[in-house]
Amino acid sequence: MYREEEVKYGRKTKAVIDSLTGENIGDQVYNTDNKIRETWNGTIWTNDYSITGIAGEALLEGQAVHIEDVSGNPKVKLASTGQNHAFLGLVVRGGASIGDAVVGAYKGKWNAYFEETTTHGNYFALTSTSGVLEDDGTNSAASFHTTGVILEN
User: To 10 degrees, the CA torsion angle through 76, 82, 87, 93?
Assistant: First the structure.
């Protein structure tokens, strides 16, 4: 028999999760918006498909980001064409101001920021506009610059 995984805060929307207070490190909640279990790390809610870092500039959820390491001080910053080697993923929490904790998801199904209409099943890539992704117009062959596949429009 299937048994749902138990988490301290149960099943909640992202808005409700963001309003929680009094969390302890390791507390967990099931995010019904993103359909994923999240864990409180003492600063921000994170998940198994993400990396937590410090924002090197103001970021918005859904923007594409990379990790920039300057003198051993890594920061999460907006990604654009030519930064595929350091591409992290998409902002899923935090990072509204420089120095804020930010969660960047490198795997999974997340909302992403596109400036154009997209087609389900096509590959997507970084653009020259920082933080923005583009539908590369193909679903048959990934290129060197491909970063993922569009799962929904």
Answer: 50
